[in-house]
Amino acid sequence: MNGGLVVNEGFIYEEEKLLTVLKTSLFFANDGFTVYDCKGELVFRVESYGPDSRDQGEIALMDAHGRCLLTVRRKRPSLHQRWEGYSGEGTDGNKPIFSVRRSSIIGRCSVTVEVYGSPGAEYQIEGSFANRSCTIFNAAKESMAEIRRKVDASTNVVLGKDVFSLCLKPGFDGAFAMGLVLILDQITGDDAVPTTED
After folding, report:
1. DSSP 112-173
2. Is 118 within the bounds of a domain?
3. Number of domain units in the chain
4. Domain containing 51 — which CATH number?
5. C-beta of residue 133 within 8 angstroms of C-beta of residue 148
6. pLDDT digits 0-9 by tens, 8-66
7. CA-to-CA distance for 180 and 141, rounded, in angstroms?
8. Number of Cβ atoms within 10 Å of the Cβ of 62
9. How many angstroms separate the CA atoms of 59 and 48, rounded?
10. pTM of the model
């Protein structure tokens, strides 16, 4: 087992696990996901309703039964884009269990994940989430999870960016990985929205 942050032990697998992630609405950016295993069983879901929900800055990851596993929230104000993850529902009065920081170095963007607790851990996310091609590495540079474009097995056609694969390495918590996907989606959505700030 590789260890790492455990949001929920029920989503740690002994063998490599391939999940299919589906963005559930095309009307607003960043507003919903459903995640299935290879048998078509629902594993996770994320729901938010309408364009105002992102103003609250909180997104909840739920299991198939609607139980909240993890809440992610944008930290404001923040020099770099910084997000925090909290166990369970809501962030009021809770301490974050991890943070995600995006930093841009001329021409290159990297995302660092810091896990709190004893022992703490650090992960790097490299690649392009916008193109659905990135990898989550641990401090030893071992791949823990990969996000890839989904290919239709029967036609060999690459599907659109609203459907992609999340491949979990043995021992890496799928709920934690999916929490990172939610944050990457928010960061990518922020990039797509023109801002007046520089």
Report:
1. EEEE-SSS-EEEEEEEETTTTEEEEE-TT--EEEEEEE-B-TTT-PBPPTTEEEEEEPTT--
2. yes
3. 1
4. 2.40.160.200
5. yes
6. 889 999 999 999 999 876 555 546 899 999 999 999 999 764 444 444 678 899 999 99
7. 17
8. 17
9. 7
10. 0.85
